[in-house]
Amino acid sequence: MRANSPIIIIGMSRSGSNILTRILEDLGLFVGKKKDRNNEAIFFNQLNVWLLGQCSGGLENPASIRYLLEDKEARALFVDFICYIMKTPKAVSFLGLRKYIRYGTPSNLDIPWGWKDPRNTYTLPVWLDIFPEAKVIHICRHGVDVVNSLRVRRKRGLLRLKERHTWIKPLYWLYLMMKFVPTNRQFIDLRCASMEEGLLIWEEYVNEARTHVRKLEDRAIEVRYEDLLTEPNPILKHLVEFCGLRATDRDIERVTMQIKRERAYAYRGNPELEAFAIRVAERLRAQGY
């Protein structure tokens, strides 16, 4: 059978890509054997982290990827290197052992497949070098809700290093050292200490993602998180067709049960967030909100 090109899900962190990916997975999209708690395939996540790391970039400063994208020689070599990695046993993390034995590399998959990672928003040109016929789904969410979610995640990260009972603190910090330092994982999102800076990151991601969507034309679609929650059926029917899935209307009805409609425009009702939304209303309107 002919190999399928992947579905690459892009969009700012905390924008709803988790629920979207879980739904698409339930409807038949293969998104990896080994995934983290955000439903991101660890294999492709690590490759994206590596790509950004070569440019001193990361989730909060991904635009530095331009140094790689503008270097034609390095870019071509990186693409070849990633293609090699996808053929090694490391790909078992994504494919699982049975699929690895059968296909040898994700590039040979003949089923609907893909992966999600906010970093895809900036590393996408590299992936399109590898998969020139890939399709892209961009999911976006109201900027104030994204900003607030980033703040909550930042506070949760800070709690890792807060004072604890004297007897447990050394053991807990040893656990943190083993978990975060060797893997270069982030403790907190430093740029998101203020809502203004968080909104700026959101704008950067949305603008970058929409640039890709415009260039790819019919090979890319944008999904608003709020529309997915409030009117899931028509959107999911379109996504099923776009991804080449075999899901039925009954399947779509089933997965909509996991959607929490009240999470749309969650900032409403919070005086601080509503005041911020009014203050940055012009910037929100510029992005369709």
Shape: globular
Q: Order of strands in the sheet with the most strands?
A: 2-1-3-4
- Helical content (DSSP H or I, runs of 4+): 40-55%
For this structure, what is the CATH class? Alpha Beta
Rg, Å, rounded: 20 Å
**CATH topology term:** Rossmann fold
Q: Judging by the overall fold, what is the CATH architecture?
A: 3-Layer(aba) Sandwich
Question: Beta-strand percentage?
Answer: 5-15%
Report the mean per-residue pLDDT as an integer: 92
Give me the secondary-structure category: alpha/beta
How many domains comprise the coordinates?
A: 1
- Number of E-type strands: 4
Give the low-pLDDT segments.
none
Secondary-structure element order, as H and E? EHHHHHEHEHHHEHHHHH
Oligomer: single chain
The helix tally amounts to 14
Gist of the model:
The chain has one domain (7-146, 191-286): Rossmann fold (3-Layer(aba) Sandwich), CATH 3.40.50. Helices cover 53% and strands 6% of the residues. It has helices spanning 17-26, 42-53, 66-69, 72-85, 92-103, 120-130, 143-159, 169-180, 195-216, 225-230, 232-243, 249-255, 271-279, 281-286, and strands spanning 7-10, 114-116, 135-140, 220-224.
